Amino acid sequence: MDDQKTKKTWGVYDKTGIMLAVCRHGFSLLIVDMVQSGELAKYPLTIISKLLEVFGKDLGGGYDIGCQFKTTLNQSPLGLLACSLNHTCLVGAFHGHAHQCLCQLDHLTTYTKGLGLEDLETCERTFSKSNVLASTIWYTSAFHWRQSISGYFKHNDDYEVYANLCKF
Questions:
Q1: Which of these, 3, 12, 71, 99, is most buried using a 10 Å CB contact count?
Q2: Are the C-beta atoms of residues 72 and 45 closer than 8 Å to each other?
Q3: Residue 1 near residue 9, CB atoms below 8 Å
Q4: How far apart are the C-alpha atoms of 4 and 72, rounded to whole Å?
Q5: Mean pLDDT per 10-residue segment, the chain (168 residues)
Q6: 3-class DSSP state for residue 147?
């Protein structure tokens, strides 16, 4: 069997999804392709690195496993920078209630001063809305896959998120 053809044929399975960073309003900040691996620590580390570079001090991020990710972040080469810029790892309200009590006190939004009523589950709502896109791009080329995802989130930012910032 021709290895080159086999590699190209199975290449459609290289992409396993995306990891997304959104702001509290729902705007897409970063979209990262997950390739051949699923949800590994390298993806949120890459996102945190870029967000710290762009936004700087006093940044907080919600992640389903924010308590475990805090340890990963601190032990990574990015750890010193994150600490010096006062980055905070948090757990969203929905996922946080499944964690241990001490974890909740350290990482749950309810106990974090300055967050107000923010639940940090905007990513979950964004992914829920974007699920309709999956069936239309399942068998597309890598270029068209990225183009469709990019177009979807641009449309979502421009016509849904922006339009809903203020309601009278």
A1: 99
A2: yes
A3: no
A4: 37
A5: 56 69 91 77 90 91 81 91 90 73 74 79 88 86 90 93 80
A6: helix
Is-contact 116 96, C-beta < 8 A?
A: no
Query: Backbone dihedral region of 8: left (phi > 0), alpha (psi from -120 to 50 degrees) or beta?
Result: alpha
Quick one: tokens of 135? Answer: 């069936």
Structure confidence at residue 7 (pLDDT) = 53
What per-residue confidence (pLDDT) applies to 152?
93
Phi, psi dihedrals of residue 27, rounded to the nearest 5°: -70, 140
- Mapped onto helix, strand or coil, the DSSP state of residue 57 is coil
Report residue 115 as tokens. 């967050």
Q: What is the largest CA-CA distance in the chain?
A: 64
Query: In 97-131, which positions are buried (b, 16+ CB within 10 angstroms) versus exposed (e)?
Result: eebeeebbebbbbeebeebeebbbbbbbebeeebe
- Please give the Cα distance from 152 to 130 (Å, whole number): 8
Q: How far is CA 128 from the centre of its chain?
A: 13
Alpha-carbon span 127 to 124, nearest angstrom? 5
